[in-house]
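Sorry to interrupt, but I need a hand with the structure work. Please put the record directly below this note.
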Amino acid sequence: MFMFLAVDAQITMGKYHDVDIDVVRKDGLILIREMATEVKNMMDFKMSAVMRIMDSAEQAALTPRADNGQPFRYYNAKRLNAFGPDGRPADGTREMMLTPNPHFDHLPVNTSLSTVLMPSNINENDPEVINAIQWSEHLDPLFINNYEGDPSLSWQFFGSSAGFFRRYPGIAWPPEDMSTMWQRPRKDRNIYDFRSSSWYVDAATSPKDIVILVDNSGSMTGHRANLARVIVDTILDTLSDNDFVNIYKFSDTTEETVPCFKDQLAQANSENIRYLKDSMINLKPENIANFTSALVTGFEILLKYNRTGQGCQCNQAIMLITDGPPSTYEEVFKTYNSPHSPVRIFTYLIGKDASSAKEMNWMACANKGYYSRIEHYEQVKENVLHYIEVMARPMVMYQNDHPIFWTPSYVGGRADSFSDDKHGQLMTTVSIPVFDRRNHSVRVANVLGVVGTDVSIDQIKKLVPAYKLGVNGYSFIVNNNGHILYHPDLRPLENNDVYEDTLEPQYISVDLTEVELVENENGPRENHTVLLDLRHDMIDQKEGETELSVKVHYDHMRRVTTRRNKYYYNPIEGTPFSLGLAIPEGYGMYELLAEQEIKHSQKNVTDYFKGDNWRVHPDWVYCEYTSGSSGEQWFKTAEERVLHFLSRSRRPGWKWMSLRPRSPLQREHHHISTKQDKDAYYCDKTLIQSLVLDAMVTEGLEKHPFRTHLEDKHPIGTLLVQLQSQGYEIFGLTLSFVATRSGLLRWTNLTSLETKEPHFSENNVRAMDETWYKRAVDQHSIEPESFVFFIFVEHKGHRAPAAVVGLQYQHSTLASHFLNITSKCSAGSSSCSKTCASDKLDCYILDNNGFIIISENNEHTGRFFGQIDGTIMDSLVQDRIYKKVPVYDYQGACSNNKYHFSGRANKIGVFDPAKLLLNFVMKSLLLLISQLKYVYGTALAYTQEEDDMLDTYSEYELEQYPTGEDIIDEQDPIISPPSNTYSPSFIPPYESDPMEGVDMGQFGVRPCDRKVDLYILQPDRLNTSGQSNPLKGKLTNCHVTGCERPFSVQKIPHSNLILLVVDTMCPCGSKQLSIIPQEVSYESKNGGCLHKPKDSLYRRRPPKCINYHPEVIIISS
């Protein structure tokens, strides 16, 4: 296990001053405008692509199909490459060459053809299905042309209203890797019926206000009740963030199934849909159905929303689910819905009794709706989907208006990245409807389907380069509902297993107010005015800037820091999105401009990258080929790609190509796109020339880092010589490293010993995106003289972040040295009764978040001190040495089991301190160990003196503490230590979040709000007159004997650490402080609701609403 040290503030990288550099202030507004323009350009490409597919589809559907009498053959993804004993394709199957492609989820694909995926509920022999498969085959040339013109395009597809899914490039289903492709088992993995997905429904229809009326009378039992519930669930599955809905159960009275949604329509986000679905479980049929009451209730709430400007202000509908009404209730419809029927009525007659069919049919057909009779579960899906076709009719009848729809984000397939982590990536989808323009014998208005393409969020983030934002800066995108498309604190609850098995996206509805945590919030979801103003402006697609102090958590919500950010935002025109940038005030507002010219350099710049002791950021784009046929996949590493382009830059005729292709105007979307040259590429000239300069500056790191002479004036070499002279070589130094602003990591191994731990370079290649890099900067902003430090370059009075230099130590060697120091008497004392080695004292080194870095008990390492001794931790908080910071998690996962957060649930099977240290202490950049002797001597002196001599220190007395059982934590501790007993040998288990890594798809787990109290060191409290003087305290009246328990705390100079010495002789009780997030209950303050609805937050409606056409009444079916 290892620990890490970052460099003193006084050591600067002198070589930067030997080259042409500048330190400039960032202009956030110019930066955001440039980045928003680039993102808009990329999104225009995607929208142009789907519009061309739409045009082609509508034309292809008009072309008559020739019938040559032969059975029609097509590429069915489920029947590919299955061979008989003779080696030929088996009956009913076809052969297709498939090649693995990292751009398409790393799956084997065919970029010359599309394949058809058929949900299990679709009859492929249906004439309508066969006809649509046949004409949609003509989309392949358009798919190919789009991909050649824009090789960054992901999957393109056509979802037919007949129920099949044509996807390009062609793929077998279920997809398999090459090792099993030829003899794969027939797995039971079917794609979902996409016609209920947001990309399909929201493209085919305008937004909707829906009231669902569910008959809950005495006859609705057994099979009928189950059918009703399935119908409701299916309707809810078709709704999304732009829709509003509520469910009313009715018998003799009518009331909401979710009391929280009384007298309102709830936004159909994933959270509210889950509550509505759950509410159907507990219905208890009784009495006789009062249809008049139910219909009036439905009309009244829709009328209220229409008149007051609430809801979607577009389509409105009532869904009536019953086993039969006694009449048509014409008077109710005449009163509320005549003459133009603004509210559509969709009726679902369930069960075998068809005596009320006539009444149900009249209700629907007289009110621009649709009537369905459902007896069996397999009939539900198709019958519910009819309402989408009906609501799409006005849009189809106008013919020319094709609204483009962008979905919320979801976790899709594997990312095309050099990172080892190739799990699900964030995606969004852009889609557009396809209309039937054919002439029919009767008037129809059919949606033929929806075409679209998936867009990787990583492709968007490439256009907002992290190096331009600087360390601890970040970008995010907000849509018209205030929900984020991406954000560094977005933590999707669902993984991508469902998507990989069925292609069904699980959409994310996380609001901006749930990821930007205001520092001084008063309570959960008590949003700050400035944050709400920022959100409002971004939703309205305004340009602007603001400032906000926020809390930032990390290390799986076990640590926290506070930061004041400048926010800049700008609309992405032509989309529902706005782009935002957050840049820390102070150090974040300046950047270093320092590049090494490459093209005309006298030296071959690849010489700066010799050896294998360097890495570049795997996710940053230095240079890349932009043609899909360039062989980009043959670069195995990001370093190989960088070297390739650096070598190529030396060739005659080299051009930087630092501008990405410009998108065609949308009015020209019907033009065939231009195929890119197979060697087309893009290079970020600023980034790669900065990388070369950083490589030049750090080149000598590995050359004799421990010279005893100072002829080598290289600043890093000089630093290491100084460290050696102070005795650092005896502390188990194993590695030195430097990470720079350009994403370069370079290291030197200082030992040949092999360990079981991963090498530093395996898990720390992301430079400024690494937690230790970010913490170094934050620590410097608090204490500029700290050894936990970020190197700055100064020019013309301005300072900008440049790099982090660090050292890796063997933790065991360092801990052993700590024990040697703390086991001795202080200077000048020949004998002493108390040392840290004795049973009378416990000694700890804690970091700035209260975690134990070093302890006499090795098993304490990496744990939160409040769990070891919460009483002392409380004392440190009371005297403002640590500040308690409440952090709310609005993306939490909770168990439905009330007692889930028990001690037993929080134990881990085997405590592995080595793994814990690597994951945890690595992020706690280390102290200057030579300061320890001084600090320990001072602290130990305190323990040897009588109480009346302790007044020479900054003294504070703690408030009287209760004794025994009273001080045991009331918040469900993991394990309670024995009452009235202080047991230094008691070791609580390592505390981990029981919901961490839990798949939300598992039964019994639900989203929830959670709260945890975290801690931040207040160094000013321990720095008096520039000196790190110890403070002492004592616990009094904590035991029946009246004994006292003193302790001392002192800041370790130039670090983010403190030394804590605790007397153990008085057996005071010790409570525990938990840093496991606990669920926030709103039930008592929120009308019985377990959650706090977000529906009151501002949102902007989609720009187009097409819900009426004067001739729609002519269509009879």
Notes: The two ends are 72 Å apart (CA to CA). The chain has a mean pLDDT of 81.
